[in-house]
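Morning. Coffee machine broken again, so started the prediction first thing and wrote up yesterday's gels while waiting. Chain of 335 residues, entered below exactly as on the submission form.
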Amino acid sequence: MPDLSPSAAEVARGARELIRTCLAVTGSDRVLVLTDRGTRALAGVIADQAHAVTTAAVVVIPDVAAGYEAARREIGRALDAYAPTVTVFAAADPGDLLAWDPSFWEHLERFGARHAHMPALDDVCLGIGMAVDYTEVARFTLGVRDLLAGCRSVRVTSASGTELELRCGPDRPWTPFTGLYQCGGQGGRLPQGEVFCTPLTAEGVLAVSVVGYPFNAASGLLGEPLLIEVAGGAAVSLHHPDTALASRLRDWLAGAPGGLRLGELALGTNRELPAITGNLLFDENVPGVHIAFGHPFPEYTGADWESPVHVDMVVERPAVQVDGRAVLVDGRYSL
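Came back before lunch.
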């Protein structure tokens, strides 16, 4: 495992890349950083970089996990008070509740705000995940999208036990997320770098080392992979030595319409990220594969179904073949 202990200078560099490149902040912007007590120090670094360009404010909100409604009200008050053109959510949200709250995004739209969503921000996310050239991340991501466009089959394997065949089609386009939110109304997660689609179907076994929201904060990097048998494009069985985790995940997916369906196949495209850490915010951008069960984001993928749940699963150091061509080998791009 490479050293993932960024220096103070690297953390500051990541905050600068966030402000200057990803959000393209100028002197005419008003920046609002929403944070909590646990993430306040990192939010301060972000605000310092924003202050170097324009006016910026930091608002500490109540703990989201302890009471979402109270936190959401404080967020709403802050948005109305500052009328920002740029916002950064840098606070813990282990259930990823804010990202799935349409009223929050509608509130941002009133101001045409550009938004960085960082619900599990830590020093690794800021000092490694953000301390890269996002212009280059965007260039490479778009190139991977072009390579995948129109492909018919994707094969994913890994030393941990993944043997998965996925069938794709031209009516299920690949969408790039570059991490650049430079125009009014744009926003999304950071760190970033991925290309994704909804496959037509999938068969095989998926071995995952990281389970996404709302399980990620508690489960982290798994000591042994979670094995998921996939048939007809849906999960049919889940196995892990931690039977309680497997049971909770199974119940969460099975209890929601479409929750067991494979809704997303994604390739991480941020080549500067060296290894997965157990933090989904960072890990889904590491070169490799993550697959989600549940909601397929049909506005991007062309899928003809929806689900109220979406759980990402990260495969560690996979190999990927696209229409028989090697694209990733042991978690490294072979392009």
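The longest strand covers residues 201-211. Going to sketch it on the whiteboard this afternoon.
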